[in-house]
Design goal:
Distance between the termini: 38 Å
CATH architecture: Ribbon
GO molecular function, one term: calcium ion binding
Pfam family, one: EGF
Number of strands: 6
Strand content: 35-45%
Domain EGF-like: 1-26, 28-56
GO cellular component, one term: protein-containing complex
CATH superfamily: Laminin
Strand order of the largest sheet: 1-2
CATH class: Mainly Beta
InterPro entries: EGF (IPR000742), EGF-like_Ca-bd_dom (IPR001881), EGF-type_Asp/Asn_hydroxyl_site (IPR000152), EGF_Ca-bd_CS (IPR018097), Notch_Cell-Fate_Det (IPR051022)
Helix content: under 10%
């Protein structure tokens, strides 16, 4: 993400990329938290994306 310091109040604010959140973009968002895979597929979390691994 990109962090800037406000010149008026000296507070830092950060704009995070879609894969991260938190005050300083330190938290990786878990794209698997909503259980997007169906039919027993295993969700593998990535940066801003996920992959479903199908059972054999």
């Amino acid at each position: 993400g990109t962090c800037i310091i406000n010149s008026e109040d000296k507070r830092e604010s950060c704009l995070c990329s879609k894969a991260f959140s938190g005050d300083r973009c330190q938290v990786n968002i878990d794209e698997c938290s909503s259980s997007p895979c169906r039919h027993g597929g295993l969700c593998i979390d990535g940066l801003g994306e996920f992959i479903c691994s199908c059972p054999e």
